[in-house]
Amino acid sequence: MATQTVRHRDYFLPVTTSGEVIHGEDHADPPPARAAAASLGLLALALIAVVGLAKTVSPAIESGVIAAGLPSSVVGVVIALLVLLPESIAAVRAAHRDRVQTSLNLGLGSAMASIGLTIPAVALATVWLPVPLVLGLGASHMVLLALTVTAGTLTVLPGRATPLQGGVHLTLLAAYLVLAVSP
């Protein structure tokens, strides 16, 4: 959070088509330390709520997936899509306004939050819950993971994203979804 709001704030601001950072009325000043700490606490609280909601909704999703005859891995995909829905909507809106970098920052940020926060939180919750935790990838998903890491590295390291790079990420997402439904 400190990286996005203080140290490297310019990395997360929108840019013009010529590559200049837009400093203007669209963005607030960096938050004071107290507000950042309160935001961190609220983020942890929201994470607990999201994990609880996913746990509550998962039986209905599981029964729907079984009724549709889909593999059980689709349950995780649907729950992940529900968790990432707000950021995904914001990313699509930013892309529609031709702010590809902002769109990519939203998408990568939400994915990193899901991976970096949700999975450890669920793993910690399984200590208290009588449900086994299985995190595993098949060979095809390992290849997709490697391709995604490579595409992400090539997109993020130059500092600016292009619509073509966004299309590559969407294609990888589509391939993952297809393989999740019909492995």
UniProtKB/TrEMBL annotation:
InterPro entries to which the protein is assigned, alphabetical: Alkaline_pH_Ca-Antiporter, NaCa_Exmemb
A Pfam match: Na_Ca_ex
Membrane topology: Multi-pass membrane protein
Membrane-spanning intervals of the chain: 35-54, 66-85, 106-129, 135-157, 164-182
Alphabetical UniProt keywords: Membrane, Transmembrane, Transmembrane helix
Compartments, record wording: Membrane
A Gene Ontology term for the protein's cellular component: plasma membrane
Domain Sodium/calcium exchanger membrane region: 39-180
GO molecular function annotations of the record: potassium:proton antiporter activity; sodium:proton antiporter activity
PANTHER family linked to this entry: SODIUM-POTASSIUM/PROTON ANTIPORTER CHAA (PTHR37958), SODIUM-POTASSIUM_PROTON ANTIPORTER CHAA (PTHR37958:SF1)
Name of this protein: Sodium/calcium exchanger membrane region domain-containing protein
Lineage, highest ranks first: Bacteria, Bacillati, Actinomycetota, Actinomycetes, Kitasatosporales
